[in-house]
Amino acid sequence: xxxxxxxxxxxxxxxxxxxxxxxxxxxxxxxxxxxxxxxxxxxxxxxxxxxxxxxxxxxxxxxxxxxxxxxxxxxxxxxxxxxxxxxxxxxxxxxxxxxxxxxxxxxxxxxxxxxxxxxxxxxxxxxxxxxxxxxxxxxxxxxxxxxxxxxxxxxxxxxxxxxxxxxxxxxxxxxxxxxxxxxxxxxxxxxxxxxxxxxxxxxxxxxxxxxxxxxxxxxxxxxxxxxxxxxxxxxxxxxxxx
Length: 242
Fold this sequence. Notes:
Layout: H1 2-18, H2 47-56, H3 62-71, H4 75-79, E1 86-87, E2 92-95, E3 98-99, E4 105-106, E5 115-118, H5 121-133, H6 153-167, H7 183-194, H8 199-206, H9 211-222, H10 225-241
Antiparallel strand pairs: 1-2, 2-5, 3-4
């Protein structure tokens, strides 16, 4: 309901702005605070599961899955990635466009989504090899369908990724896929954090609009219970020595 009201307010103020009745659409930049109480817990693939996905991925989609794991790119960004934005000379992928759910190419999700992501050596190798055999099309897509056009989101999720998980036993108690393709983005973030990268760096690579969003999603991964125990022990020691 809140989203609907805000959408109506934005629309009304936009019309007022067009008619020059107001100087600014103050509702445009309003961000809703999400209630996470009833959301399902995020599932982050383990290292063992990540290795299985890379090793067992269908040959035609291994390059896309590997790129997703080591870059944290959204599926829409992978589907809209073009070869002119893969800079092999400096080993960077530029995110400048995406493909929406209707397979329409457009700008990235937000201003912060437009970014450059360094390529891991395995990504450089697999994309270099894939470029020679990649289906060609007018859009110059890196991960197109068989005739060079934008691949459907549902095809990747239901016909490629879900069977990959099920066939390799990466399932929940009901035998369903343990996580979605989007979880590869979480896997990438967890790998970045494990390397000791700062939250600000991870925010820029992942493409979050604010660092608070990065901390809301991945803040718990920065925490170390062992370090906390040592901190409390030092606090007590310092107090008693005072």
